Amino acid sequence: MAFERQMPDNLMVRDARLFGSVLERHRLEDPPSVHWARWAAAGIALVMIVSFCVTRHVSRKRASIKIAPSAAQVPSVAAPGATNAVAWRLPGQTSKPSDKAKTPPPAPSKPPSAAALQAKRWLDGAANRSREERILLERLAQAEREGNMRIAIDSIEQLRKRPTMADIDDALARRLGALNVDYILSGQPTLWTAEVELRGNDTPYLVARRYRTTVEAIRRLNNLAETHAFPLSMKKARVLEFPRASLVVRQKMHVADFTLNGKFFKRFYVSTSADTKPGAYPIGRGKGEGPLERFKALGLRFAPVDEAELRMFLAPGAQLTVSDL
Questions:
Q1: Superfamily of domain 191-241
Q2: Which of 166, 196, 204, 217 is the least crowded, having the fewest Cβ atoms under 10 Å away?
Q3: Sequence ranges of the domains in the chain
């Protein structure tokens, strides 16, 4: 009975009870010699049954156990920095799996702009400047490197207020002008732009007259392909606000400084001629009073790109002044 408790197989228990009942029935009917023969046969049969049950039970246990991988299937760990840290290899496999994960190559770094390189040169040569100037130059270099126009503009404006920066003031002024133009065309709010509601019959020409600006400025600020009409879906427009626009030409220096509302905006290079006479020449709407007509009459010559920008900024009411300095 103790052996039966160790073996949970029902077949062993059933067969043992069957042989027991058979032996009990013939025990009194047969002679002793027959009884001993039957007991021997029953013992042999019982041993065979027990052996069969034990073998069957062990086979079931082995089937339920997960077989550990062999040495040929042990994962090979890649070297540090490899893209695939663990690569399983099957027996006889010599090459790596074809579906190995691949790390994309790093994106090429964007080369620094000319303005960023110039700001870095200013910073590298600032050993003899004051601590405040070095901080401003470092701030400018970082802003140029990151493409932050607002911080770059503010840094240059503060640097130009310092008399000790006069040796690079012309370069600072030209860089500041380029930043100002890019800034107002970027769509970000600025000191010189405003967003206005459009009326039902508005055209770029009517909006330019109302806000004392130019049609070209309306077109460029709002990315318009045409200058005769606004898109039907457009409800607001960006305009330039500069009731006090002024261009001062300095003949001896061959520069023209443009200001909006009394604040420096951009410096242009200009060439003059014998027809260039000092004086004040307002920009108007009459014949010969437009910016291009004034330039031609005074013998002022600008680069084509600069001339296009001045046409955008010099609206009727702007002031053109020629100085003999």
A1: LysM domain (3.10.350.10)
A2: 166
A3: 2-59, 112-187, 191-241, 245-323
Closest CA to 212 of 283, 143, 110: 283
Backbone phi, psi, residue 250, to 5°: -110, 110
CB 268 within 8 A of CB 301: no
Average pLDDT, the chain: 82
Give the closest residue to 193 by CA, choosing from 205, 203, 181, 201: 181
Judge contact between 86 and 77, C-beta under 8 A. Answer: yes
- Tallying the residues shown for the chain, one arrives at 325
Helix (H) or strand (E) holding 115: helix 114-124
Q: How far is CA 252 from the centre of its chain?
A: 47
Q: Which helix (H) or strand (E) holds 279?
A: strand 279-282
Six-digit token string for 233 = 């879906």
What letter represents residue 231's amino acid? P
Mean pLDDT of the region 239-267? 92
Task: Please state, for a pLDDT cut of 90, what percent of the chain lies above it.
Answer: 60
The Cα 131–Cα 235 span in angstroms is 49
pLDDT per residue as tens digits for the range 171-209 = 999 999 999 999 999 999 998 999 999 998 999 999 999
